[in-house]
Design brief:
By secondary structure, the protein is of the alpha+beta class. It has eleven helices and 14 strands. The strands form four sheets. Strands 7-6-5-4-8 form a five-stranded antiparallel sheet. A hairpin with a 5-residue loop joins β11 and β12. The chain starts with a helix and ends with a helix.
Length: 324
């Protein structure tokens, strides 16, 4: 059984992970009785934490926004400074901590009193932001989506695809990820009955809160990251081709600049579908594989390879005739 101080911190941490807990759930997690949970809640309230109770047989607790910022965390000025810093980091200006910043900002805004939220909004409205290298995403949209992921609530939004096609989507949100200064949402698409990845800057979330859902088994984080990286690269490709490479699949994967699905065709052959905005650029990348290959179904790529081969042959001939 945890000591009182450690148990209080653990209880506070649990209350921050989701909006509602029953007394029985908390007691089971902490290995104590429901009476102990009631006493610990009173201790946290005495310290200033705004814990709300729900009466009834299935009653429970939630951590709400109070009239004052709880002590032992941050004073008002520190809270404003942290929130502003997290918003800035969430915009992608500090590479590598965007996702952590969004999660921390969602937790902080959950307990901020209204007067501090007004101060932060005033600061943001009076600040001139320098253009970022990627598309801009409103931190409020990010924190709203992060909260929906945390609370397992459905999200509806209008979505504009890379092609410009508009659609209305209803999803179960699971993960936010930042890749190359762009935010992506990994979600289960209810209409298509499949996992999908959405660019957050192309979403227009609904203001209504959707119903809760039962979480599905989620693919491993590494698989999710690979899918996002693959989708981010493929989404802007104008030209695609199917190529058979006369080399092992593992070797081809090691030579590719971004994760691409490579299908083995035996020990020394494999196939994949590369893409690029220009067939000439795709031809250059295939040449860097340092392996023989066959283009299956792209006339533009074959023409680009022929053009590139002729240019190289002219360069070789001219170089051999050049004086030493």
């Amino acid at each position: 059984m945890l000591e009182t101080s450690a148990r209080l911190l653990r209880l506070l941490s649990l209350l921050q992970t989701r909006p509602d807990w029953t007394s029985t759930e908390l007691a089971t997690r902490l290995g104590v009785t429901t009476r102990t949970i009631r006493n610990d809640v009173e201790r946290l309230r005495a310290l200033g934490y705004p814990i709300q109770a729900r009466p009834g047989v299935a009653g429970g607790y939630r951590l709400g926004a109070g009239g004052a910022l709880p002590p032992l965390l941050l004073d008002d000025d520190e809270a404003v400074a942290v929130a502003v810093g997290l918003r800035t980091a969430a915009s992608g200006s500090v590479v590598g901590i965007e996702e952590t910043s969004v999660r921390a900002l969602a937790k902080l805004q959950q307990v901020l009193p209204s007067r501090l939220r007004h101060r932060i909004s005033a600061f943001q409205s009076s600040t001139v932001a320098m253009p970022a290298s990627g598309p801009e995403v409103d931190p409020d949209v990010l924190t709203a989506i992060a909260s929906a992921c945390r609370d397992h609530r459905r999200v509806q939004f209008a979505y504009r695809a890379h092609s410009g096609t508009a659609s209305r989507r209803s999803v179960e949100p699971y993960r936010l990820a930042n890749h190359r200064h762009r935010w992506y949402l990994v979600a289960w698409d209810l209409d298509r009955d499949a996992w999908r990845t959405f660019r957050v800057d192309r979403m227009e979330p609904s203001t209504s809160v959707g119903p809760r859902f039962t979480p599905r088994p989620l693919p491993p984080d590494q698989e999710i990251a690979a899918q996002i990286a693959r989708g981010a690269g493929e989404a802007t490709w104008r030209y695609r081709a199917r190529v058979i490479v006369h080399a092992p699949a593992a070797y081809v994967r090691s030579r590719l600049p971004i994760p691409v699905e490579v299908e083995p065709l035996g020990e020394d052959r494999c196939t994949f579908e590369p893409g690029s905005d220009h067939p000439e650029m795709l031809a250059l990348h295939l040449g860097m594989l340092d392996a023989d290959f066959t283009v299956v179904d792209s006339r533009e790529l074959v023409d680009a390879l022929q053009k590139l081969a002729l240019r190289y042959q002219r360069a070789i001939a001219a170089s051999r005739q050049a004086p030493d």
